[in-house]
Amino acid sequence: MEIYEFGQRIIREAGDFIKLRMKEDFKVDAKLNPHDLVTDVDKETETYIYERILERYPDHRIIGEEGHGTDIEDMSGVLWIVDPIDGTLNFVHQLQNFAVSIGVYVDGEPYCGLILDVMGGVLYHARVGSGAFKDDIRLDEMRDTTLDRSLIGMNANWVIKDQIGPAFKKIVEQTRSTRSYGSAALEMAYVATGILSASVFFRLHPWDYSAGMIIIDEAGGRTTNLLGEEIDILKKDSILTGNKAIHKELTDYFTSDAAFIAGHRRVHGEKR
Ligand code: IPD
Ligand code: CA
Ligand code: CA
Ligand code: CA
């Protein structure tokens, strides 16, 4: 079986695992701060996916948010990048609106992306060169839009930050409206389907964005960091993803704001 079909199978199995497991009690812990939560279900689901992959492909490598693959520093071979539950806060508070997200890279090249809306039962997926799909329906090529006629995915938290906040505030003022779904992966799937025209994130990890980037690329969109720089898939970075026209409009916008650039450099370092 090909990796792509295998990935679709295990992500759905992982979704079934979560749906069963969440009927029982689970422990919720804080990680770095009281707003950064992790549950037993996150950890168990990551282990479940990790074991399924290695059972079938013992030589593949896996990076997961909850601790697998922390020693991986290069992209050689087949690399699976796994977020077992993207949207843990939604999982804890709502028991819905969360996803499993898996991006697969072969020798550093994107291969396929998979995002499962667990409670919605919808799988967004793409293999490079074969188009992007919502279940078995092929997604249309993303249509160009302008900021003033778009819905933009954005977390309100960034508006209140000192150096970078004013840039995000201007987006709120200029766009038709913003939305925040609490799962970066789902938000990227919504960009791919055109429900959102673009989405902006100031800090995401590879497991948050790797699958979404591949799906959006296959749907005809573009993803870079907020300054228009290419993403290094093993690093955390800001993310700007959307149709090509709005992507250009927004990178022009962020790169014309000196305070924003300085704030971005302070957090993410110098241009690569
Ligand atoms: C988080 C979600 C959230 C985004 C955070 C991520 P997690 O992932 O994607 O929408 O704003 O930056 O860390 O921790 O729920 O997997
Ligand atoms: Ca987390
Ligand atoms: Ca995540
Ligand atoms: Ca997670």
From TrEMBL:
Keyword Hydrolase present in the record's keywords: the answer is: yes
What taxonomic lineage is listed for the species of origin? Bacteria, Bacillati, Bacillota, Bacilli, Bacillales
Gene3D superfamilies from the entry? Answer: 3.40.190.80, Fructose-1,6-Bisphosphatase, subunit A, domain 1
Answer yes or no on keyword DNA repair.
no
Q: Which organism is it from?
A: Salinicoccus jeotgali
Q: What is this protein called?
A: Inositol monophosphatase family protein
Which key words tag this protein in UniProt?
Answer: Hydrolase, Magnesium, Metal-binding
InterPro entries assigned to the protein according to its UniProt record, in alphabetical order: Inositol_monoP_metal-BS (IPR020583), Inositol_monophosphatase-like (IPR000760)
